[in-house]
């Protein structure tokens, strides 16, 4: 059974959302138990009225402090050592939980979980990864979505390995395709960092597709899209704003007059299905990849329905042993890189090579080389 630690106090709504979400999820998934982390008496009060069979599959871990949504990460890390975020992260570190889910302060969650869990070998910076719906009916995993504003080419390569491992673990895709977000598909496009990252990705063991553009995210051109956190966050917020605008515009048009209202009734089944397919709550739950433990960040303003999907993502990642898969992927990368480095050190002038193998094979050798 998968055990997940829930930061019950985090987010814009705290217990009003986290407890109903937990109870709803437990009712749908019998293979999960939850550790509810937060102020104990408030949690017990919030659990009143729920079926005893569900409550028995939970335990409570008291945490006396709560990190505010606008609290500086450094202050939360140093000043609140008994916060619900920190206590939940410690449970994962100690092996008492398989994953942690929080809707709390993103910066504080990243800082605290990184301090407690540390990063995986071969990873310099953790990244935020989340799935965005695409027109193929599936989702495109995108990272980084805001954890790292400035990235080196090597960091983007690491994001590719982590994203590929996540899709492979949770979606069962053997060799996920990886695209590098750029301003064009051509090799000459992009800044120096992106060009260097493309070279590293091409030389890697990943299934690298090449450069992709913003519209490829929603086309589903690749399974994974890699970018730095500045670009990723802008793309994410832009897509969220566009979706809200389109939804509002469609609603306004159907309300325009009696005829359009009648048409809305006829179109209701299609509109309902469209709304379900595009519902951002179904994609809630971003993974903080690169840590020695599974950490899932829910949107701070998520409702109970949305938060339950973040719990599901934690469950899927834990059941698929995501951390082990990332380690194996990085190990394969490091082994391949070592093999390439060793091959590069070998030259035709090595003592172990015969004179015949070291001699030029071309008949067009210069007189100097023939002398």
Structure description:
The protein has 371 residues and is an alpha/beta fold. It folds into two domains: 152 residues, Isopropylmalate Dehydrogenase (3-Layer(aba) Sandwich), CATH 3.40.718; 166 residues, 3-Layer(aba) Sandwich (Isopropylmalate Dehydrogenase). The chain is 50% helix and 15% strand. The chain contains 15 helices and eleven strands. Strands 3-2-1-4-11-10-5-6-9-7-8 form an eleven-stranded mixed beta sheet, with helices on both faces. A hairpin with a 5-residue loop joins strand 5 and strand 6. Helix 7 crosses helix 13. The radius of gyration is 25 Å and the shape is globular. The termini are far apart. The C terminus is likely disordered.
Lay out the secondary structure.
Elements: E1 2-7, H1 15-28, E2 32-38, H2 40-47, H3 52-55, E3 58-62, H4 73-79, H5 84-93, E4 99-102, H6 106-117, E5 127-133, E6 139-143, H7 153-171, E7 177-181, H8 192-202, E8 207-212, H9 214-219, E9 224-226, H10 229-254, H11 258-278, E10 286-289, E11 294-297, H12 304-319, H13 322-345, H14 355-358, H15 367-370
Parallel strand pairs: 1-2, 1-4, 2-3, 4-11, 6-9, 7-8, 7-9
Antiparallel strand pairs: 5-6, 5-10, 10-11
The structural class is alpha/beta
CATH-assigned fold name of the largest domain: Isopropylmalate Dehydrogenase
Q: What would CATH call the homologous superfamily of the largest domain? A: Isopropylmalate Dehydrogenase
At the first level of CATH, what is the class of the largest domain?
Alpha Beta
* Rounded average pLDDT: 89
Number of helices: 15
Number of domains: 2
Helix percent reads: 40-55%
Shape: globular
**Largest sheet properties:** 11 strands, mixed
Number of strands: 11
Strand content: 15-25%
Query: What is the chain-wise order of helices and strands?
Result: EHEHHEHHEHEEHEHEHEHHEEHHHH
Order of strands in the sheet with most strands: 3-2-1-4-11-10-5-6-9-7-8
Flag low-confidence runs. 351-371
What is the annotated CATH architecture of the largest domain?
A: 3-Layer(aba) Sandwich
Gyration radius (Cα, Å) is 25 Å
Q: What distance separates the N and C termini? A: 75 Å
